[in-house]
Amino acid sequence: MTITHLKEGDKAPAFEGIDQDGNTIKLEDYKGKKLILFFYPKDNTPGCTAEVCNLRDHYQELKDKGFELLGVSADTARKHQNFIKKFDLPFPLLVDTEKETIKTYGIWGPKKFMGRVFDGINRTTFIIDENGIIEKVITKVKTKTHAIQILEEMAAV
User: Which residues form the catalytic set?
Assistant: First the structure.
């Protein structure tokens, strides 16, 4: 279920929020760098844990290719801190309890889970280039192999 209105070639919407430690993070902080901006439903759930651990395990490889990583969910700073500590995550997680960035990127909406439809965060990754342009939108995220998926998608660009 793809719901984002954003597509490759679009200017990435500006955002500003705080990370797990209360540091302000803005899209413009990544100017001149490639950013993997990944949205995920919830800390400490099986799919989300698989996704962040896979990104963690390939973090150096992604950094070596010039990527910065930033995760976003609607969890609180305390939940993000615990998630980062528990799984030794080397990248920041943006706190978006008000869902401002989530809605700006168009990934809040209907989801299906176990036959039930409800509103939530649709797991989506945006690859944003050095100039703030969306290079890739990944809506069918492979949680267990997401880093490899990103690298393969970017090799095809």
Answer: 48
- Residue 37: which region, alpha, beta or left (left: phi > 0; alpha: psi -120 to 50)? beta
Domain boundaries, the chain: 30-155
In this structure, which amino acid lies at residue 13? P
Q: Which CATH class is domain 30-155?
A: alpha beta
pTM: 0.95
Residues 6+ apart with CB under 8 A from 23: 92
In tens, the pLDDT along 62-90 reads 999 999 999 999 999 999 999 999 999 99
